[in-house]
Amino acid sequence: MDVNEAIPEYKRHTYSDYCSWDDDNRWELIDGVPYAMSAPSRSHQETSMQFSRLIGNFLVGKPCKVYAAPFDVRLNADTSDDTVLQSDLIVVCDNAKLDSKSCVGAPDMVIEILSPSTKMRDMVLKFRRYLKAGVREYWIVDPDSKTVSVNLLKNGEYVASAYGGEDGVPVHVLEGCTINLSEVFAQ
């Protein structure tokens, strides 16, 4: 089965169900439907590590924290608790949103790095869930084209800006933080 396909089950699952599943496999839960996750490619991992390093270095001594997958993001924990995402990177500035295993509610920032197996999920399903949950800044990173789409939440909608090449990309939720793509995508 393709990892972008939902498991053909009729039961809608919750975070409680998700926590009981075998830890040997990685899953996301979107509106109660489980989606299998495959291991990321080397390029994906390198890109994730670069973003994590650059943002993490900026955050030293600051209250916000960066977390990398696997780390549960429970977007609707206060209601149906049926959406648990494994965002590639998140930034959380409110410690009250963190428990021992997850971010409970919307992170301030999410970075998703596109893979062939998850591209449509990241660009459509997750995009909609992050918008609905109120994620203030959502980056979609394409390591193949070395581009970043920055989606900023304004008046209940995302406003997109595109970056590439050697651009410096401002992180709007982290005043003073700019990510130079030449550092991220250096070969």
How would you describe what is shown here?
The protein is of the alpha+beta class and 187 residues long. It has a single domain (40-184), classed as tt1808, chain A (Alpha-Beta Complex), CATH 3.90.1570.10. Helix content is 22%, strand content 32%. The protein is built from four helices and 13 strands. The chain has helices at residues 15-19, 42-59, 119-133, 181-184, and strands spanning 26-30, 33-37, 65-68, 72-74, 84-85, 89-92, 102-104, 109-113, 137-142, 147-154, 157-164, 168-170, 178-180. Strands 3-6-8-9-10-11 form a six-stranded mixed β-sheet, with helices on both faces. The longest helix is centred in the first third of the chain and has 18 residues, at 42-59. The protein is globular, with a radius of gyration of 16 Å.
Summarize the structure.
With 187 residues, the protein is of the alpha+beta class. It contains four helices and 13 strands. The strands form four sheets. The chain has a six-stranded mixed beta sheet with strand order 3-6-8-9-10-11, with helices on both faces. A three-stranded mixed beta sheet has the order 5-4-7, with no helix packed on it. Strands 1-2 form a two-stranded antiparallel ribbon.
Structure keywords:
187 residues; tt1808, chain A; three-stranded mixed sheet; 13 strands; 22% helix; 32% strand
